[in-house]
Specification:
Elements (H helix, E strand, L loop, with lengths): L1 H10 L3 H9 L11 H33 L35 H30 L5 E8 L6 E9 L2 E7 L2 H8 L3 E8 L3 E12 L5 E12 L4 E10 L4 E9 L1
Parallel strand pairs: 1-7
Antiparallel strand pairs: 1-4, 2-3, 2-5, 5-6, 7-8
């Protein structure tokens, strides 16, 4: 009976494959199970192994992807006129934007530089006068106009010791400045110590728009101090004539 059963099992289709598999130590327990269950176990082992291996391999990759920081979105720029997309440059992380200098601060700095330049120019002029015209030889001639309604000034000529040192032609704007109280320095030069003579000639329009030319003379002594001489033009209401005088400042 046993031999017949063994022969029957050996002749059943697929029994040789089952016998070969049960011969392996890992499948020794399959000999006691029905054939359908054996096939089910084999299929489960064959199909479940690769699936578990793939899941195990995918798990680390998923964790690494989740831990990695998300990339920053790329900056977009307007499209070019021809339709070509233009990619705007992305600023480096942590770079501080450049802040332009305030316009008010720049204007203030420019004004400061202009003021310093004017002060420097004034100091240079004073230094030049001190070097070129020392106090012990300096002489200066000024022109002033008091009222001046009876005389329209055109020009002034100055001679020192019969030598012409100044000849100035005035513009209407300069005459208007003299009418408002301005004083013009007409001449600055050097004279040695001693006695000197100054002659001034005034040319312009007198009463009734007539050509007018008058002269005035003054003698003065030059010492160790600077000498300042003022040429004054005044109106004489009693004579209805302009008057020309010279004043030497001590």
């Amino acid at each position: 009976m046993n031999n017949r059963r063994c022969n029957t099992i050996s002749t059943r289709p697929g029994s040789q494959a089952v016998a070969d598999r049960t011969a392996h130590p890992s499948f020794h327990f399959l000999a006691h199970l029905p054939l359908a269950m054996v096939l089910l176990v084999i299929l489960t082992l064959l199909l479940g192994g690769p699936a578990r291996a793939g899941a195990a391999a995918a798990a680390p990759a998923t964790a690494a992807t989740a831990s990695a920081p998300a990339p920053a979105p790329a900056a977009t720029a307007p499209a070019a006129p021809d339709g070509t997309a233009v990619v705007a440059p992305v600023a480096a992380p942590g770079a501080a934007p450049a802040s332009p200098a305030p316009a008010a601060t720049l204007d203030g700095r420019i004004q400061d530089i202009k003021t310093e330049a004017l002060e420097l120019n004034r100091d240079l002029m004073v230094l030049e006068e001190e070097l070129l015209f020392p106090a012990n030889t300096q002489v200066a001639v000024f022109v002033s106009l008091d009222v001046g309604k009876l005389f329209g000034l055109d020009s002034v000529q100055v001679k020192l010791d019969d030598k012409e040192v100044a000849n100035y032609l005035y513009t209407p704007a300069e005459v208007e400045s003299l009418h408002r109280g301005g004083v013009q320095r007409l001449y600055l030069g050097n004279l040695r110590s001693g006695q000197h003579e100054l002659v001034a000639f005034f040319v312009g329009k007198g009463p009734h728009e007539r050509d007018y030319r008058r002269a005035t003379t003054v003698k003065f002594d030059k010492g160790a101090d600077p000498k300042y001489i003022e040429l004054q033009i005044k109106d004489s209401t009693g004579k209805l004539q302009p008057e020309f005088s010279v004043k030497v400042w001590q």
